Amino acid sequence: MKLSRKDFLRLAAGAVALAGAGGLVHAVNGPDATPRLRSGQDRKRWGMVIDLQKCHEEKGCDRCARACHATHNVPGIPDKAHEVKWIWNERSADVFPFQPSEYTNQSADAPLPVLCNHCTDPACVRVCPTRATWKRQDGVVMMDYHRCIGCRYCMAACPYGSRSFNYEDPRPHLERINPDFPTRTAGVVEKCNFCEERLARGQLPACVEACPRQAMAFGDLNDEQSAIRRILARRFSVQRQPELGCGPSIFYLV
Amino acid sequence: MRDRLLIYSGLAVFLLLVTFPVWHGLAAKTSAAAPDVRRPAGQTACVATRPYMRKAHMALLVEWRDAKVRRQQREYTAPDGKVYRVSLAGTCLTQCHGSREQFCDRCHTFAGVAVPDCWKCHTSPPAAPTGANTAAAGGVR
After folding, report:
1. Residue B123's closest CA among B93, B79, B86, B102?
2. What proportion of chain A, given as a percentage, has pLDDT over 70?
């Protein structure tokens, strides 16, 4: 078959257009670079159960928050707009905003502890432009403060408000610095790290250890025999806004 | 030769300016002698050879950082087989080199190389040497 010059040019242009379109489809629709860790029985998935009944019985208790913040050099900044927190007490009605009614209003103000949910499909990880935050194989949503550029996309993405930004140098606001853990610096985002440095040493998270009523249980959600799974099998629990699809790893026993 | 005064005073000013670094150095009592970094007492080897550490400690520190934070490798096996806990303040400084002021800053200041912002977040052991720290720093200061 003899190809005319015109046909040759047509064919070439068509091939280039096809290749370009293929690349575009791949870029838009291609596989997500971050692995999904929803299943995988060989892997750990650290999770936590918080018994709200036990928690409420200790009125005004914030030992979990104090233990965590002392361990991780989280500053106590008086200015609400600049405050940094990893685990803190929040109004029940703000944490579980579904179905408010005149009969449940009385308990709306009861505080309950909230922290990073270490989601299975974390929105913060998806939006981070530098991969300063990522999902570890064991389920911990980790932060690399070295790599954080302080863009705060993760804070906008997180539906739970679990992340704080360092608007100022946190060091002047620390009563004493735990030398075993770095502080942060102005311009980075921080959040609960599930005490990954303690997990590496085989210890429980500081908040779990500090709870006077053992209201918090920590363990591997992928292990059916773990204490946390046995609790979840026995008692009814809720997650924060599971309909958002992030898959929180923190469960509240109601 | 009516301009003699002008020429000599100009020469004097020129000489003063040219030799400014010399007498400024003398006045500031600076010395060209490098900091005397002694081997930490009781330690025979660093995590890598001395020439390597001199040239590439920054690369090693970055490698340690990424290994620990991103790959959860919390131990480092030196070429001689010794295993170290990966920690800037906990291993490098506490076990051998004392503190940031005693170790990092001295060479960085001498060489005029800015100290990277490690210490905005990481905490160095205290600079005021306790007994153990003095021994660890090789009795410097």
Report:
1. B93
2. 91
Domain boundaries, position B20 = 1-30
Average per-residue pLDDT for chain A: 90
Q: Is B85 within a domain?
A: no
Residue B123's SS3 state is coil
- ipTM of model: 0.76
Q: Which of B70, B74, B123 sits opposite A144 (nearest CB)?
A: B70
pTM tops 0.95, yes or no: no
Across the interface, whether the CB atoms of A183 and B65 are under 8 A apart is answered no
Residue A30 Cα distances to A25, A125, A132, B37, angstroms: 7, 17, 22, 54
Facing A146 at nearest CB: one of B69, B74, B89 = B69
Residue B39, min C-alpha distance to chain A (Å):
25
Question: How many interface pairs between A and B have CB atoms less than 8 angstroms apart?
Answer: 25
Domain count, chain B: 1
- At residue A39 the predicted structure's pLDDT band, cuts being 50, 70 and 90, is very low
